[in-house]
Amino acid sequence: MIRRHLQQVAQVLREAKSVVLACHLNPDGDTLGCALALQAALEGMGKRVVTLSSDGVPEIYRFLPGSEKVLTSTEQRGFDVAVVCDTGMPERIGKAKDAVFSARIVVDIDHHITEGAFGDIRIQQPKAAATAEIVYRLLKVMDAPVTPAIATCLLTGIITDTGLYRYMNVSPATLRLSATLMEAGASPAQIAEEVFERRSLPSIKLLGRALEHIRQEEGGRLVWSYLSHEDFTELGATDEDTEGIITQLRAVRDSVVLALLREVKPGRVRVSVRSRDERIDMAKLAEKFGGGGHRMAAGFWVEGNIAEAKEKVIGALREWMHCSTSTSRRA
Hints:
alpha/beta, six-stranded mixed beta sheet, five-stranded parallel beta sheet
């Protein structure tokens, strides 16, 4: 089935003259790496390509080849093909939605299983550690050369979505593909340094503030922290500087569910949630707040100040953890 869908997508991309590529909100290394790998491959084939990321490109990913071409929005419409990378929910592509759905054919490529229909051709491969693995297979079906630039983009997707190969989603296939991408010119050392070791001073200070605010509940299974608007103002930081902070919360022993609340604007709080237990579906929780994401990682917004948001979100998380695990036990 996957092979057939890859061949279908390869065919429509070969025939297309114009293509729009879209990343999800709060873009990470996988969604950006996939879009930029496709951008490079399609431009090499002479296609007219527009790459959209409604939230722009975070500074830590600006080393990716072609990232300077990424737009936050476009007035162009009527593309031949649209390809959405690393999300199964159209709401998660923000302002790019209008351009994407103006295309004659919409393709969704994701390594998470999400509910609902989205796209004329949908490729979902949950066994892949990152969407970058699927995009690599697509490029091979298209007979597109994997240049050093493309290899760097795809390996960035794998390295960031596996947390430097520390997560359970890593398979022998992941490691074999990583070796192939290294042979094609990608450097894992350079990628790791760019993403994890070149943070701005405000982002380091913000991490320290988040660690000061860390809380542990539910017998240590729920770990959460917050950043107030005053924290951002005092440290001269922006929401972009919060990239990777929630990953640091995973280091707390016995943690199962993680949450980071940040009051990016006065009275508006952005929430990221993570789960290590497949029974506790973060995407379904996020949907209750009008957000989205995947089973193990999701996000949403809450109106109100940070104190009000903490009360709403942490209360909902406690209830969701109890409901999810007790339902599973009864089943």
